[in-house]
Write a structure and sequence with these properties.
Length: about 400
């Protein structure tokens, strides 16, 4: 497993003994939300970036049920989740599929009321022989990756008294593994023993947003972000305490995008004109570096590449702009209008994979001088609100009704 120096620092600080967060994952794997470093960056190189007019080769398609869950990919297996409506009740289904042909290896289901914008929001997290998944209603499962059997199960509301329903959209946090700990951003930061789900601590007392936590090293100790209804809150896991907070109120309580962390700098953005901000973290707290409305992203998490942040400004399903911002100053380097705001973007080998709401997959150079489109293809029907994933030479895209497509871009 190849880890960046930043990731190695996070892992070693979190475990304390130099152990790994993710076991059994190779360099091209995508074991959790936003990838191995939880930053939207893929380490892939040598994949096909010149596409025919009708797009990359379709390896397979499969419907996995309604929802917004992304995919986790480890080795020859893919993991995702969706909601299936039955005659009497609905259920969330967690799938394990073969990446080569999309055939089902196993599935595990549990009753789950559909509600508004039905289906799960979180992306499964794979760590060694365990898969962790949180439902929109607070069901937290640990499954064996071998056969999908349940190792343990909790409900964060019933068992821990956290995660009150935010607005109408349900809990959206994708679990974070740090060493032997499982961490959830539910307004309160919930820290569990990943082996059995026992609570180790819960920190803070804010209402839950829709974001997911990011871990990073600060002063040789692991810290974790919480982007909740109040705003941005920072926790020191060694001291087991909050060290700083910055109020950031968004319309509909919609603090959704996962923070982007670079060293001790933390970037956040929210939609409905709220804008974006950059903070400097230190053991003493959070210091504002800038705040502006140059980027106002409702749901799409930005990706940092060579000093520039790339994201889409606008609300889901509306027309927005793909933007390149100078990360340090927040100034716009370029923007390109006309994108239906949807799934967001992933960066690999200096190239942006952008999935729009209408199922249009666009390949763009991740360069600060100008918008440069390299290729595009219509790969799915609407509505696509899930991040595209590139792992081991395959691109995975999904829409809200559960159509999942695998595109083969393996180089020769």
């Amino acid at each position: 497993m190849n880890l960046s120096p930043r990731t190695k620092g996070i892992v070693c600080a979190a475990v304390g003994l130099g152990g790994l967060c993710f076991t059994g994952a190779a360099a091209g794997d995508w074991p959790q939300w936003r990838g191995p470093n939880r930053d939207g960056v893929s380490a892939e190189t040598g994949w096909l970036t010149t596409w025919p007019a009708d797009g990359p080769k379709v390896a397979w398609k499969k419907n996995v049920g309604s929802g917004y869950s992304g995919v986790a990919v480890v080795g020859d297996r893919l993991y995702t989740a969706g909601n299936i409506e039955g005659f009497v009740k609905t259920a969330d289904v967690i799938y394990c599929l073969n990446v080569a042909d999309g055939k089902e290896i196993w599935k595990q289901s549990y009753d789950s009321a559909k509600g508004a914008y039905g289906g799960p929001r979180a992306t499964p997290t794979v760590d060694g022989d365990c898969l962790f998944m949180l439902s929109r209603h607070g069901d937290l499962l640990c499954l064996a990756v071998t056969d999908g059997s349940v190792k343990w199960r909790k409900n964060v509301r019933a068992d821990f008294g956290v995660g009150k329903e935010p607005h109408e959209w349900g809990l959206s946090c994708s679990p974070l593994v740090l060493g032997d700990r499982l961490i959830l951003d539910l307004g309160k930061l919930l820290v569990l023993n990943k082996a059995d789900g026992a609570r180790l601590s819960s920190l803070g007392d804010d209402g839950p947003g829709f974001s997911s936590p990011v871990a990073f090293d600060l002063g040789g100790q692991p810290h974790v972000t919480s982007f909740n209804q109040f705003g941005l809150v920072l926790y020191n896991l060694t001291a087991n305490k909050e060290i700083g907070r910055a109020e950031w109120k968004a319309k509909y309580l919609a603090n959704v995008a996962t923070p982007v962390v670079d060293g001790g700098r933390i970037f956040i953005s929210s939609g409905y004109g709220r804008g974006c901000a950059l903070f400097q973290a230190s053991p003493e707290g959070l210091k504002s570096l800038y705040e502006n409305t140059n980027l106002s992203s409702e749901c799409i998490s930005g990706v940092l590449h060579q000093g520039c942040l790339y994201s889409v400004s606008g609300e889901q399903g509306n027309t927005g702009s793909l933007k390149c911002l100078d990360f340090a100053t927040g100034q716009v380097k370029w923007e390109h209008a006309g994108f239906k705001v949807g799934g967001g973007l992933t960066i690999a080998d200096g190239k942006i994979l952008h999935l729009a709401d209408n199922g249009q997959l666009t390949l763009v150079a991740a360069a600060p001088d100008a918008y440069q489109e390299l290729a595009r293809a219509k790969v799915l029907g609407p509505n696509c609100w899930t991040q595209p994933v590139l792992a081991n030479g395959r691109i995975y895209c999904r829409n809200n009704k559960g159509d999942l497509v695998c595109l083969d871009v393996r180089g020769q």
